[in-house]
Design goal:
Fumarate Reductase Iron-sulfur Protein, Chain B, domain 2, two-stranded antiparallel sheet, 15 helices, about 50% helix, binds iron/sulfur cluster, binds FE2/S2 (inorganic) cluster
């Protein structure tokens, strides 16, 4: 794939001719696409079309060859079949899927088991992430939940959850949806189902799905939560969910809150690390059982989700209040033995000493 663009350059082919050359000579589809687009978008387009034409011609060519062999051998006792069985099966599958005869649930199931297999391949690292997430979730008191958004196995019967989802910006309104109930279904699964199956314009955020990134936080039935770790079973009231963006922050669209104010306050709290050593110095060793490490441990697990900020009434009443996460970050650095200058910056004469000292007591 790397050499083909060099060959094209050496032959002096223009973009279209290069595409025809690559699409007509490379066997593997992925390599055709990779080599084509590494030359230019036009070459990539031409190469892809030529390759797909080759693939589409496969069946007619097989048919023609099968017919020719059948005619030639028809006099023999065992004439060759007109088409090989795999070509017939392929054509039948194309017809069946094109006519929509395979139920979407069966396709979802197949995709689910495929994704399940690939996530098993990721194995150990995934398990590590889940273990860390479980620990964090337990310590922070957040509700537990599934690790990914692979479609949940549906519950038998026609159980559904009625969901009201905030749509629009600050002046939007709730829109109602009905979502099939699934086993171990999380609120993030519900939102993802709506976006994938009912309304693709729904905006929301998520990334890790295991309670590590903090991006999926939303208000669920009036309470801010990590939606990837919140089971529908635990929070649905009479089979109903009301999902909104985080409170105390501007709304960008639908379930997406504007987090700038939240993180700007981290900067205002001076929550940045100031090194006391250079990269030439040996690594600092702060042993787990020392007072320094124990003090820092208390606040080190914050993932910046904004749940505490959205739940904080003081933030609601006083927009200048930095909020729990920013103060927690500053507090962590005050206690970080490797940090230079934070402790002296946070003297009782500074902006928020009362909050810091209140946390200490
Ligand atoms: S932002 Fe707040 S709620 Fe979220 S992890 Fe940090 S301290 Fe906890
Ligand atoms: S998606 Fe990362 S914490 Fe929920």
């Amino acid at each position: 794939m790397i050499l083909y663009p060099l060959v094209v350059g050496a032959l002096g082919l223009d973009h279209r001719a290069a595409g025809i050359f690559l699409g007509g000579t490379i066997h593997d589809v992925a390599q055709v696409v990779g080599a084509g687009y590494s030359v230019s978008p036009e070459t990539g387009d031409s190469a892809t079309i030529v390759k797909l034409l080759r693939v589409a011609m496969l069946l007619p060519v097989c048919l023609a060859l099968g017919l020719a062999l059948h005619v030639r051998g028809s006099a023999a006792a065992h004439a060759a079949p007109v088409l090989p069985w795999f070509a017939v099966a392929f054509a039948a599958l194309v017809v069946v899927t094109s006519l929509g005869w395979i139920p979407s649930t069966a396709i979802e199931q197949a995709l689910s088991s495929r994704d399940g297999a690939s996530s098993r391949d990721r194995g150990d690292r995934h398990e590590d992430l889940a273990a860390i997430a479980r620990r964090h979730g337990n310590e922070a008191g957040h509700a537990g939940g599934a690790r990914n958004t692979v479609p949940c196995r549906r519950r038998p019967g026609s159980a559904r959850v009625e969901v009201k989802v905030w749509r629009g910006g600050e002046t939007g309104a709730y829109q109602s949806f009905e979502v099939p109930r699934g086993e171990s279904q999380t609120v993030l699964d519900v939102v993802t189902y709506i976006q994938r199956h009912l309304d693709a314009t729904l905006s929301y955020r998520f990334a890790c799905r295991v309670g590590m990134c903090g991006s999926c936080a939303m208000t669920v039935n009036g309470v801010p939560r990590w939606t990837c770790r919140t089971h529908v079973d635990k929070v649905a009231r009479e089979g109903k969910l009301e999902i909104a963006p985080l409170a105390n922050l501007p709304v960008v669209k639908d379930l997406v809150a504007d987090m700038r104010e939240f993180f700007d306050k981290w900067a205002r709290a001076r929550g940045h690390f100031k090194p006391s050593a250079s990269r030439a110095d040996p690594f600092a060793q702060v042993k787990p059982d020392t007072r320094e490490r124990i003090e820092a441990d208390a606040g080190i697990e914050c993932i910046g989700c904004g749940v505490c900020y959205a739940a904080c009434d003081v933030v609601k009443w006083n927009r200048d209040y930095l909020g729990p996460a920013a103060l927690n970050r500053a507090w962590t650095l005050v206690n970080d033995a490797r940090d230079a200058g934070q402790a002296s910056a946070w003297t009782p004469s500074r902006a928020m000493p009362a909050a810091i000292h209140a946390t200490r007591s």
